[in-house]
Amino acid sequence: MNDLQQTEFEILKCFIEICERLNLKYFLVCGTALGAVKYGGFIPWDDDVDVALPREDYEFFCEKAQELLPEGFFLQTYKTDNKYPCIFAKIRNSNTAYFEKAVAKFKINHGVYIDIFPLDGYPTNKLAQKRIEFQKVYYDLLLSSNFDTDCTLKVKIIRKIFRILGFHKKTAKAIARFEKSISAYPTKNSKVWCNHGNWQKKLEYAPIEQYGNGIPMDFEGIRAVVPEKYDEYLTQKYGDWRADLPESEKVGHHYYSVMDLEKSYTEYMN
After folding, report:
1. Which pLDDT score is estimated for 254?
2. Residue 246 Cα distances to 20, 43, 226, 243, angstroms
3. What is the pLDDT of residue 203?
4. Integer CA distances (angstroms), 39 to 33, 61, 129, 228, in order
5. Half-sphere exposure (CA, 13 Å, Cβ side) for 17?
6. Helices (H) and strands (E) in the chain, counts
7. What is the structure's pLDDT at 125?
8. Which of 165, 161, 159 shows the shortest CA–CA distance to 146?
9. Which residues share a beta bridge with 260?
10. Taking a C-beta distance cutoff of 8 angstroms, is the pair 2, 23 a contact?
11. Please, what is the Cα angle at 194 between 188 and 196, to 5 degrees?
């Protein structure tokens, strides 16, 4: 592990301990699941940690976690940090600094973090599916008006319109409406679970059987749970995930303007 991964690993251990204490179902997901299965820990060049819980467990975790976290750790959601522009949670180490370029100007907690995604159910009714997909496109565009990232000319124009209308100042209200829409379908009544927060869109819509009850894997020497049918899960997301990548693709995908593992983000806020 490099120093950033070690810092993230300490947060991950706290997350797992809380989930086990509260008897909550969780999974390593995305590149973190791939790392557990393929490398027994971090993908060597990876720069983040992704975990997920079914919506009902996610909500309970968000309600209880802060009081169980060590001093200096912060559970970040749109409810606890109202300028935070995402529909999923993070646990941040407030004694560190990690300013991602896309949100560096935001007055939010910028400590090193792990991502915590809710897994939502999905409607079977075709009309309801069309409605939720339309809402998802709308809210993704609306929330993206907060970010400073490369995008197409069309998206730049839409972002500018949203900013002129002041939507970027109403992040918390927009996320609350979006969350109400995507959480309307209980996971226990659904054949499909969706991670709406991740950038891979419908590649994050999986049959519930892929997740199942999970299966324990070694992750840097600790026990952590990945989706039960992890081969199907990883193949859906990454194709031939067992193949080695070209050297040019062995890079992280988060870009920061400041990273300091010894000082708090508050020392860089100005």
Report:
1. 80
2. 38, 14, 26, 10
3. 92
4. 10, 28, 37, 17
5. 10
6. 8, 11
7. 92
8. 159
9. 97
10. no
11. 135
Look up residue 153 and give its two tokens. Answer: 């000319």
For residues 122 and 125, give the distance between their C-alpha atoms in angstroms, rounded to a whole number: 9
Q: Which residues of the chain carry a pLDDT beneath 70?
A: 146-151, 154-155, 164-169
Tokens, residue 68: 């169980």
pLDDT confidence of residue 122: 95
- Which amino acid is residue 69, in one-letter code? L
pLDDT computed for residue 155 by the predictor:
67
Sign of CA dihedral 142, 144, 148, 151: negative
DSSP letter assigned to residue 109: -
CB within 8 Å of 88: residues ≥ 6 apart:
115, 116, 117, 118, 197
Give whole-number Cα distances, 114 to 10, 17, 52, 98, 201, in Å.
Answer: 10, 14, 11, 11, 20
Q: Are strands 192-194 and 205-207 parallel, antiparallel or unpaired?
A: antiparallel
CB-CB contact of 52 with 117 (8 Å): yes
**pLDDT score at 266:** 97
**Buried/exposed code over 222-250 (b: 16+ C-beta within 10 A; e: otherwise):** eebbbbebbeebbebbbeebeeeeeeeee
Instruction: Answer yes or no: are the C-beta atoms of 223 and 238 closer than 8 Å.
Output: no
**What confidence tens digit (pLDDT) does each residue in 45-92 have?**
999 999 999 999 999 999 999 999 999 999 999 999 988 989 999 999
